[in-house]
Amino acid sequence: MIQEYINENKERMLEELFSLIRIPSVSAQPDKHRPDMMRCAQRWQELLTAAGVDRTEIMPTAGNPIVYAEKMVNPSAKTILVYGHYDVMPAEPFELWKSQPFEPEVRDGHIWARGADDDKGQSFIQAKAFEYIVKHDLLRHNVKFILEGEEEIGSPSLSAFCEEHKDLLKCDVILVSDTSMLAADLPSLTTGLRGLAYWQIEVTGPNHDLHSGHFGGAVANPINVLCKLIADVTGKDGKITIPGFYDNVEEVPENERRMVEQIPFDEEKYKQSLGIDELFGEEGYNTIERNGFRPCFDVCGIWGGYTGEGSKTVIPSKAYAKLSCRLVPHQNHNEIGQLVVDYFKRVAPKTVKVDIQSLHGGEGYVCPIDMPAYKAAERGFEKAFGRRPLPVRRGGSIPIISTFERILGVKTVLMGFGLESNAIHSPNENMPLKLIWKGIDAVVNFHLEYDKD
Amino acid sequence: MIQEYINENKERMLEELFSLIRIPSVSAQPDKHRPDMMRCAQRWQELLTAAGVDRTEIMPTAGNPIVYAEKMVNPSAKTILVYGHYDVMPAEPFELWKSQPFEPEVRDGHIWARGADDDKGQSFIQAKAFEYIVKHDLLRHNVKFILEGEEEIGSPSLSAFCEEHKDLLKCDVILVSDTSMLAADLPSLTTGLRGLAYWQIEVTGPNHDLHSGHFGGAVANPINVLCKLIADVTGKDGKITIPGFYDNVEEVPENERRMVEQIPFDEEKYKQSLGIDELFGEEGYNTIERNGFRPCFDVCGIWGGYTGEGSKTVIPSKAYAKLSCRLVPHQNHNEIGQLVVDYFKRVAPKTVKVDIQSLHGGEGYVCPIDMPAYKAAERGFEKAFGRRPLPVRRGGSIPIISTFERILGVKTVLMGFGLESNAIHSPNENMPLKLIWKGIDAVVNFHLEYDKD
């Protein structure tokens, strides 16, 4: 019956999703895309209204606006708050895309575009499942939606928004589709997320670019220094060397280690899909533990000096990098943020000046697998995919999930339908069409199952 | 008398120099500037003709053409070959220039523009001294000019050109104005140059950019790896750690160490002019030794990952750097080039692929201070500046100088009139006007003194 509805409405639904994708709502580039943020929020408002909400509002924040919508069927019934985000990552480098990032194309059964998965495609699944439930008069609980426009830059305005609108956002559980499954035929529910801390570092050497012949060997080169500072953060054993970094890190519990062993994982296939010969990570942990349970340090960007064609012999005045750490439960992102800032200031040689700023961060999250909403999600997945989903801790960060818990006092169920191969945050982001349809099926069943408890 | 001529012709001369500077002859950016190379060569041809040569030709090479010109007064007289280059370094980053790099401006007694010193300004000094000598009928030896258009990219076509035109380039000594003095009131003659080797390195991790949350900690990040590779090249003592790197390096001779001690050098002033608190370099050597007598390793550029506004959480597929070494006499740039390529391939971890290419290089050079042309240059400087110039080894590289010696069998005298504060290769390159006029004076006197031997 759900499949029938999907088949009858496929074309309209795809056109609706494409209308969202075509708006380049890149939150990290406000100079270029500020008007697109409002356009995208308005388009969501139209789509949610058409889907059946009875109230919707575009609510201002200090940053990009938040789309709020609700359908209240019964004040004494339970309330589910659906969270998603309408902003997307930058699409650079454009030249690596096979088709235009903001002009969705269907090829080989996938939608190819920025946001096809993260998070326009996935939020769309929530909206269309809601539409089905409403149109078939199956809704027995209240549903609220909030769609924010700053997730990809760390949700700087959302916690203030939650504090200010606690009553409006009152709910029993939060439902989010913004994570991925182990494989298209191996559904899973995300039971943990890593936290994040992110910095920009600027190393200044001489007060202007120098001729590397006249000064080379006598003056510290800020690129060389920056490389040394970065290199020293990771030990040979793959551990982060910054004193105090692991102080609050919880060791992987034995029962979770045993659950990890249940997860089918083919290391050869994994390496092959990434085109690498050898994996690298912290000694004493396997890949799933490394990217689900353990923190890490990655440079997300680096630049300095001459980067054009050919050769220029220069000692640049400045070198820069964007640094990030994924954090795990009990690591406070503010504390780690400061720890790393203090560390770099302490170890920086006197031959240069080091300026480092925290850009954003957020806490990790753990979802209990015995709560009713989790169990409803499990059954929803099982009905749509014919297979019980595995509980898995994932390495990504949705900092706002721990903020919701802190401010609104509710847990979140992460019903994600992405795949690692969807290349979110990368060129050629994509989403298999069949996962959109199965996702709608699973979320519809979640709503139905949730009422049974 | 020379000053009088200069005073009478100042405005015309400046306009001539500016006409050269206005042509953005950036050899490192052929896609953008190929037509400018020919325009600049033609402008030089016009100016040399007006200055009094009796033959001039724009000669093709595999790369940018070479401007040849000559005035032969007597087949049995000695011949001086003046070498210069009409290409310039890229002007990026443009935003750091106080005035347009290719629109020369006179402020505070300096010309501000790319090429004001290196090497349009300095080659112009040679042309105008020649003009004076010819116009006043003082020329007693033959003069040849070659101006190339690829010096800033390592003169890839010039050695083939020299091999092919040995007869045309036959001469007794080569004269070059492309170096700097210790200070405006402290003339010096460059008696040594460092060699150069230059590479581009590409580190490839995963076959596409990855979400740093899903993969962070489990997959080697090519930026982190590149930083480690670079950091490991320099030891705590400032020495290069690559095995075999110092094998052919000549220790600073004791008599040269004593000459270095004669050079007035104010370390505090040096640091202040660069805006740095501490110098860095190889232990056991002072600053002048470090940048004149010792090799070094500098990263001239680095890039990879997200370098735009805000934060993007990505493990990039690739990271790049431009690496360079200044070399000293007896270090062969081809050997060092290969040594470094082999080193990086050997130490690269198996978690990534490392590709490294030699871009260009050249040998160092030493000029004997007892040869007649050197002595004539010494007296020329003394007449113009009222002070005997100090012999100094400098850290820059003009690889072609050692090539001239190898192919044409002649030594070069380096009569340079630049200053370190002229910011060559940097934003806000400049040249004090008075050094242009004093330079012409010194070169005129060189020609006159050279005939006396």
TrEMBL record, chains A, B:
Q: Name one GO molecular function term.
A: metal ion binding
Q: Which GO terms describe its biological process?
A: proteolysis
- The reply on keyword Acetylation is no
Q: Which Gene3D superfamilies match?
A: 3.30.70.360, Zn peptidases (3.40.630.10)
Q: Which domain of life is it from?
A: Bacteria
Keyword terms of this UniProt record: Hydrolase, Metal-binding, Protease
**InterPro entries, from UniProt?**
Cyt/Met_Dipeptidase, Peptidase_M20, Peptidase_M20_dimer
Looking up NCBIfam families in the UniProt record yields: PRK08201.1 (NF006053), PRK09104.1 (NF006579)
- List the PANTHER family hit by this protein, alphabetically: BETA-ALA-HIS DIPEPTIDASE, SUCCINYL-DIAMINOPIMELATE DESUCCINYLASE
* This protein's name: Peptidase M20 dimerisation domain-containing protein
